[in-house]
Amino acid sequence: MVSPPNSDIDSLWKPAIATVSLGVANLHPITAKLDAAARCGQQGLELFHDDLAQLAQTLRGQATDGSPRTDRDYEIDAAHVLRDLCAERDLRILALQPFRHYEGLIDPERHAERIDELKHWVRLCTIMSDSLFILIPSSFLDPSEITGDRDRLAADLAEAADVAFPVRIAYEALAWGTYINTWEDCWDVIQRANRPNLGICLDTFNIAARLWADPTSPTGRLPANADRDLEESMARLVQEIDPDRVLMVQLADGERVDPQAPFLHAPGLPTLLSWSRNARLFPFEEERGGYLPIREVTETCITRIGYTGWVSMEVFSRTLGSNDPAVPIEHASRAGRSWQRVLKLLGERPEKELIQESME
User: Fold this and answer.
1) Which of 27, 30, 194, 335 could form a disulfide linkage to 313, CB 3.0–4.6 angstroms apart?
2) Do 257 and 215 contact (CB within 8 A), yes or no?
3) Are 29 and 52 in contact (CB under 8 A)?
4) What pLDDT, on a 0 to 100 scale, did the predictor assign at position 224?
5) Which residues of the chain have pLDDT under 50?
6) 150-164 helix and 108-128 helix, angle to the nearest 10 degrees
7) Are the CB atoms for 285 and 328 separated by under 8 Å?
8) What pairing do the DSSP bridges indicate for beta strands 92-97 and 133-137?
9) CB 161 within 8 A of CB 136
10) What gap in Å lies between CA 249 and CA 236, rounded to an integer?
């Protein structure tokens, strides 16, 4: 078991973990995940909807009154249960995610269906916490299904923010997004939407994967100019991002894998998506093959911009699909060790004046 460190630096940032990083929903009960997170020093949770839906199905199976009830009814029940389970373990639910494939839909009926689903998610959020946000990752649907028009994307996000208010919405650029795949793209749409409850989620894996990595290359990376591109992008991030609009920073590294690994070449899936689903690592797990420039991206997204608040481990991996009941505690322990490495990194930064200002 990894205990949370007790330090002044630790007070600047609070550790969280995504429930998907503790096991697959249909193999690992949410109670086992919550117990593992609490034992290993996590304080917050990104709740993946799969876990809530799995709990809802369990509650449906336990129902004895036979009354006609919908999946949404049972999800509402599950939200109440999760709120209590987390309170018992002194855990806070921070986000409900991912609300996929929302912005830019060309078909108006599909857009209306997503808005109806969003209203349901808002109700779930208000049950579980008074400060929980909904995370919308950038869409990776085929261009035949979505538009890349920035004004339309902004209008859709503005509508989502208005529907959800006062619940907050975080928008995140996925490295394999069809049109929005960099933090710069994401931030541009957020600014155009201009809603007080709309912010950005910064993810170290997605940033580094898009600008720097190529898991199918013998070197695992893009050509040499990727270092310069990453450096310039991080400089822009420091200049442009308002830390008050950052709703969460997510941390993950990427595993150096065989360029011919079958999962990298799954038909119909973007390479970076396949890599992300199978080969993320917790930050600074070099002993497991981590090799992305996570140090530079982490420092930029946290201390260089003056961010304080929740920092979440969001790791997808083929190691999570085992039906071994030890999976949740094993991954929670890895996350706890990784968090201490992150704190050491942040504490060693030379810009100590910035840290001191954040503490005052």
Assistant:
1) 335
2) yes
3) no
4) 86
5) 1-7, 349-360
6) 40
7) no
8) parallel
9) no
10) 17
pLDDT number for residue 272: 96
What pLDDT is stored for residue 351 in this prediction?
Answer: 43
Residue at 286: amino acid letter: E
Structure tokens at 115: 């808005």
Phi, psi torsion values for 177, nearest 5 degrees: -60, 145
* b/e code 52-91 from CB counts within 10 Å (16+ = b): bbbbbbebbeeeeeeeeeeeeebbbbbbebbeebbeebeb
Dihedrals phi, psi of 131, to nearest 5 degrees: -140, 25
pLDDT at 63: 80
How many C-alpha atoms does 157 have within 13 Å on its Cβ side?
A: 33
CA dist., res. 278 & res. 284, Å (int): 17
Give pLDDT tens digits for 14-66: 999 999 999 999 999 999 999 999 999 999 999 999 999 999 999 998 887 77
Cβ contact 138:99 at 8 Å: no
pLDDT in the model for residue 11: 76
Taking alpha carbons only, the member of 29, 159, 183, 26 closest to residue 99 is: 159
The 3 state secondary structure assigned to the chain is: CCCCCCCCHHHHEEEEEEHHHHCCCCCCCHHHHHHHHHHCCCCEEEEEHHHHHHHHHHHHHHCCCCCCCCHHHHHHHHHHHHHHHHHHCCCEEEEEECCCCCCCECCHHHHHHHHHHHHHHHHHHHHHCCCCEEEEECCCCCCCCECCCHHHHHHHHHHHHHHHCCCEEEEECCCCCCCCCCHHHHHHHHHHHCCCCEEEEEEHHHHHHHHCECCCCCCCECCCHHHHHHHHHHHHHHHHCCHHHEEEEEECEEECCCCCCHHHHCCCCCHHHHHHHHHEECCCCHHHCECCCHHHHHHHHHHHCCCCEEEEECCCEHHHHCCCCCHHHHHHHHHHHHHHHHHHHHHCCCCHHHHHHHHC
Instruction: Give the pLDDT confidence score for residue 10 in this predicted structure.
Output: 59
Q: From CA 91, how far away is CA 70, in angstroms rounded?
A: 28
